[in-house]
Amino acid sequence: MSAALLRVDKVSKRFGGFTALQDISVDIRPGERFGLIGPNGSGKTTLINCISGALTSDGGSIVFDGHDVTRLPAYKRTRRGIARSFQVPRPFRTMTVLENLLVAIDFGVESHGLSGDQATAEVMAILEKIGLADKARVSSGQLSQVELRKMELARAMAARPKLLISDEAMAGLAGAEIDEVLDVLLKLNGEGITVIMIEHIMQAVMRFSERVMCLDAGRIVCEGTPAQVMDDKRVQEAYLGA
Amino acid sequence: MTGRGVWFWIGAALFIALAVALALVVRNEYVFFAGFVILQFIVLATAWNILGGYAGYVNFGTSAFFGIGVYTAIFLLKAFSAPLLVQIGVAAVVGAAMGLGIGLLTLRLRGIFFSIATVAITIIAETLIINWKFVGGATGVQMLRPPVTPPFDSYIKMLFVVLAILVVIAVALARYVQDSKLGRGLRAVRDDEVAAESCGVPTLNLKLVACAISGALMCAAGAPSAMYLQFADPVSAFNLNYSVSALAMSLIGGTSHWIGPVLGAILLGSTQQLLTVTISSEINVLVLGLMLVLFVVAAPEGIIGLVRRLWRRVGKGSP
Amino acid sequence: MFSLELLLDAVVLGVMVGCFYAAVSIGLSISFGLLDVPNVAHPALLVLASYGAWLLGDFDIDPIVAGFIMMPAFFLLGVMLYRTYHETFEKRGSDAGVRGLAFFFGIAFIIEVVIIMRFGVDQRTVQAFYIGKSIEILEVRIPMRMVAAFVVAILLSLALTLYLSKTFLGRAIRAVAQDEAALRLMGANPVAIKQWAFGIATAVVALAGALLIIVQPVEPTLDRAYIGRTFCVVVMAGLGSMSGTLVAGIILGVAETIVLTMFGASWAPAISFTLLLLVLGIRPQGLFGR
Questions:
Q1: Domain enclosing residue A44, as ranges
Q2: Where residue A206 sits, what CATH number does that domain have?
Q3: Is residue C259 one of the residues assigned to a domain?
Q4: Predicted ipTM?
Q5: For C33-79, what is each residue's pLDDT tens digit?
Q6: What is the mean pLDDT of chain A?
């Protein structure tokens, strides 16, 4: 039995009377590329908020890398290896790109023991990989949309994650830019990082993922290979609102 | 220590030496009366900026910490005849504890709720003191100064030098916070708290530390006031003017660097002294309010920002 | 001695005071509760309106009438304040929090000092036929001034609740609080609507300020006590809930009068602030919040 990197077990979340998530269970294997799809308001972002710790789930448990993280605050989960990007980019606006990443390495990696120069070198290597090295000294408030998306991924990487959750990192991007971001995610996965991708752009998720899960109204509709999910009637119904 | 650090400490040593020299040479006591107030404002503004400027949590409760500092000193004096330095030291500890307590209660709150909560703390603290007879209740309490310690020939000069040392401690702390990992974390909190948390920043812990440091300095700044005025009453000790001044001086000077609050306090503090003497104390409060509004609207980065912009323009003009 | 009779007195008076608190808070309930503008200058505007009513009193104008007369001027003042706030802070986006708060704090401070310089620190009162008399309700003697304030307060809350739920603009104001983007998609201009709403909120303060000087003598720094009362009511109500504002006002009013009768006036200023802290600590979404 291969141990799951992330085990989500019967997780529920309610907002007042509204049930956003109902008994969601899923196992993610180490190194997997996992796609999460579903119509707007289906609970995708709520689920990853529960996984990353931005929200605390009302029921169920979340086990990551052998540790129960259900009740841990977000920053401790980051230190255990769960990193994420945001649907709407959230840069530290008054800082340069470099400083943005330094925050993540300084706080996201526990006792990294790096000197200032070494930390900067590590951050620059990440920026190089992601194709933002020339923007390192630019204030993050001045980046273009695609650059912001890349910086979010780079910042997540600076915390040396085992699991990277990409929340619609391609929303609002054009064709070539989508491929750029997709390439970055594939490259990171190639280095052994497990990736959960939430995406509206079907083509991208299907190309990227080894396994896809579809949510609707806070429940799992189906789960399987991209082809299986695409062919599933229930998925089509969920998207057409039937 | 880096080159900059050396220069900072040389400057600090010179500053204290200058304060001592002034105290030993200058005869006119008024200089020290006015100087004390300006130095006190430097400490308050610097303290305010550690939470308000670096972390972006607007504290309206400077006067709560200040007032508790004043009354800590009075209590120690009445109960144990404690000497000045003990008063200040204990006040700092009380202030740090108070900062932690208030922080735990309010720092989970978003922006304005935190600010309103700090006003609440001020009024509640004032009400408690009003109803505490031992420290004089609503009518206030009068105190006698103990004999002055040599080499100073007057108590007010000694207070002036003590405040100068407090200024150096405050500014050094602010500078340390700004340049340290803590400072970078606080800046992340200020820019985007959710993103900070997701980068591994323990946001609540950092805010608590900032609130405790800030509170300790504010209380410490309040403690010598008891001996300065030889009188204290709740209404003036918890006067909201301290809150407005600390906030205005920081914002006018510029919140992004420790020098900002220092500049703001020197500029506004001395203007205030001048206006209070020449015209009226109401006018000086009005000027403070007008300057605050003017600066937050027209020069959001404060004096620091203006200077930087000027610098850049000069730089461009002469290639 | 504390008796049941005294308690009844306190409760009846507390309910009336509470409705008055609701009336002075309702403008804030719109500007802060619905529009999310950190309007800490609200209590200062309130006291400013009280002084306006006092000035108009010199011309034998009844304070309540004076409140209505001042409404257009306050409406304009509100529009100007919001415009400035929007242009300088909301639009720039980043860092609106710190500087926006400081802006309104500064405005409050300026109003306070200008009042001190113009009118001095003495307490001011107004004259009207209903001030100084009292009537008996449930065997409790109630000053007529409280009754007058109570009636106007109820009518004001009712009028605003109707306005926000029945009229087109009123509904637009509530919509802007819920979802600005959706409103923009429908072709409405959220900024214009917010500006209008802030104007209304400030116009209401004109009348509320008149009530304030009917209920108690006014001095320039009175706004500080009302920071606690108004924010306590608005937060306790749950941001932007009009009916909640009335209930929260009554809770505060009764709590204050009971403590006042039991422990004396020196504890009064801390009540609203303590309640506010309790609400923030235990149930920050308020009693009727989402």
A1: 6-89+161-240
A2: 3.40.50.300
A3: yes
A4: 0.88
A5: 888 888 999 999 999 999 999 999 888 888 889 999 999 999 999 99
A6: 87
Instruction: State the nearest Cα–Cα gap between A59 and chain C, in angstroms.
Output: 21
**CB < 8 Å to C116, chain B:** 282
Give partners of C (≥3 CB pairs < 8 A).
A, B
Contact yes or no for B194 and A73 at CB 8 A: no
Mean pLDDT over residues B46-56, rounded? 93
B95 vs C61: CA distance, rounded Å: 51
pLDDT of C213 over the 80 cut: yes
Task: Determine, for residues A141 and C94 on separate chains, whether the beta-carbon distance falls below 8 Å.
Answer: yes
Q: Measured between alpha carbons, how far is A164 from A31 in angstroms, rounded to an integer?
A: 10
In CATH, what number is assigned to the domain containing residue C237? Answer: 1.10.3470
Give the least confident one: A73-82, B139-148, C62-71. B139-148
Interatomic CA distance for residues B256 and B271, integer angstroms = 23
Q: In angstroms, what separates the C-alpha of A240 from chain B's closest C-alpha?
A: 33
Chains that touch A (3 or more CB pairs under 8 A): B, C
In this prediction, residues A89-114 reach a mean pLDDT of 88
Q: How far apart (Å, rounded) are the C-alpha atoms in residues C175 and C168?
A: 10
Measured between beta carbons, the chain B residues lying within 8 angstroms of A102 are 184
Q: Does the residue C151 lie in any domain?
A: yes
Whole-Å CA distances, C206 to C23, C77, C228: 11, 11, 19
Domains of chain B: which residue ranges? Answer: 3-240
Answer whether B188 sits within 8 Å of A91, measured CB to CB: no
Question: With an 8 Å Cβ cutoff, is B299 touching chain C?
Answer: no
d(CA A102, CA A174): 29
Q: What is the dihedral of CA C251, C253, C254, C257, to 10 degrees?
A: 150
**Does residue B249 have a pLDDT over 90?**
yes
Mutate which of A69, A78, A92 to test chain B, going by most B C-beta atoms within 10 A?
A92
